[in-house]
Amino acid sequence: MRRELLLEKIEELKGMMPWYVLDYYQSKLAVPYSFTTLYEYLKEYRRFFEWLQDTDLVSAKRLADIPLDTLEHLTKKDLEAFILYLRERPLLNANTTQQGVSQTTINRTLSALSSLYKYLTEEVENEQGEPYFYRNVMKKVSTQKKRETLASRAENIKQKLFLGDETTAFLDYVNTEYEHKLSNRAASSFRKNKERDLAILALLLASGVRLSEAVNLDLKDVNLKMMVIEVTRKGGKRDAVNVANFAKPYLEAYVAIRKQRYRAEKTDLAFFLSEYRGKANRIDASSIEKMVAKYSADFKVRVTPHKLRHTLATRLYDATKSQVLVSHQLGHANTQVTDLYTHIVNDEQKDALDKL
Q1: pLDDT tens-place string over residues 211-229
Q2: Residue 255 needs a FRET pair 20 to 30 A away by CA distance; which of 23, 216, 236, 262 works?
Q3: Is 108 part of the annotated catalytic residue set?
Q4: Separation between Cα atoms, residue 206 and residue 167, nearest integer Å
Q5: Residue tagged active-site, from 28, 210, 282, 315
Q6: Which residues make Cβ contacts (< 8 Å) with residue 8, sequence separation at least 6?
Q7: Which residues contact 306 (CB under 8 A, 6 or more apart)?
Q8: Is 234 a catalytic residue?
Q9: What's the pLDDT band for 96 if we cut at 50, 70, 90?
Q10: Pairwise pLDDT comparison (26 vs 286), residue with the higher score
Q11: Catalytic status, residue 3
Q12: 306 classed as catalytic
């Protein structure tokens, strides 16, 4: 979604929200949470508040009029009823008989509500320096995690990673072969964005940064001489991230055409740009997701930017056998998350042994 459209939708949702949600939004904007995350959270709050209205747990006719004490006095049974509603409600698509949303979606909804409740009960201050209320019912609501061993998860994702020589082969494919399959019109569009797209792919594969971190990069954050970028991690922490040297020619090629190709002015601070109606704009996350999906599907298998992050992490662990280094590269607070990559690499080692 284009940044301008995203901001328009956020403003539309903010116009529906109670004052305390607007307080929450302003606070998280300062962290900073990404606009995409805040938009998704606001959508979850709208769905929750509309459910409160539909079930007569609140008498307010407008979402904006739902009082703060409604949230304070909701019970665990109320929240469990909401979860049951999510699990059993018919999907909006009339062409399917499937009921309810996935557990992943339910967990995302509960995560948004937990964030709001934590803000209201712990983080915000009223005039007396106290939170708005103390009773956090979300702490009593458990989420059902997807049950899957690391070995099983590794098996499921390893076919969607570009390991070994496939990393450079993927970039070479986009650079030299992809265009030959396109119509004249599609080829013209590809050539316009070729350097930028290759720079984005190379950066994701060479640094392991999150999609939001790549989107939010500014020119001042990129040091091609040292091959280091500065990003804002989750929680608003700034971090310096090393970038593998194989990405350098792609990044330099993009920088060389960035200003002229995208009509960038001095005020256009974003590193990765798109052009809309003759003006430069920061490229949005959905455009990168579609771009990665398009190129990867044509090369091998359709993947997400997060799979490119997994690719870098797996390759780095394979080269160093250090979970600490991998966790630092990815911006994780501990090495627990990187346990997955040890299983992927072990599978790769087994495949190699089987070929002896």
Answers
A1: 999 999 999 999 999 999 9
A2: 236
A3: no
A4: 9
A5: 210
A6: none
A7: 210, 211
A8: yes
A9: very low
A10: 26
A11: no
A12: yes
What band does 341 get if pLDDT is binned at 50, 70 and 90?
A: confident
pLDDT at position 95, please? 47
CATH superfamily of 151-354: Intergrase catalytic core (1.10.443.10)
| pLDDT at res. 355 | 60
pLDDT in tens, 35-88: 888 999 999 999 999 999 999 999 999 999 999 999 999 999 999 999 999 888
Catalytic site residue from 108, 248, 259, 332: 332
Taking the C-alpha atoms of residue 198 and residue 208, their distance in angstroms, rounded to an integer, is 15
- ω before 32 within 30° of 0 (cis)? yes
pLDDT tens per residue, range 244-260 = 999 999 999 999 999 99
* 341 a catalytic residue: yes
| Domain residue ranges in the chain | 3-140, 151-354
Provide the b/e sequence for 200-233 (b: ≥16 CB within 10 Å): bbbbbbbbbbbbbbbbbbeeebbeeeebebebbb
Mean pLDDT of the chain: 88
pLDDT at 262 over 70: yes
The pTM of the full predicted model, rounded to 2 decimals, is 0.67
Burial category of 85 from C-beta neighbours within 10 Å (exposed 0-12, middle 13-18, buried 19 and up): middle
Matching residue, tokens 């265009």: 179
Q: Which of 158, 234, 248, 307 is catalytic?
A: 234
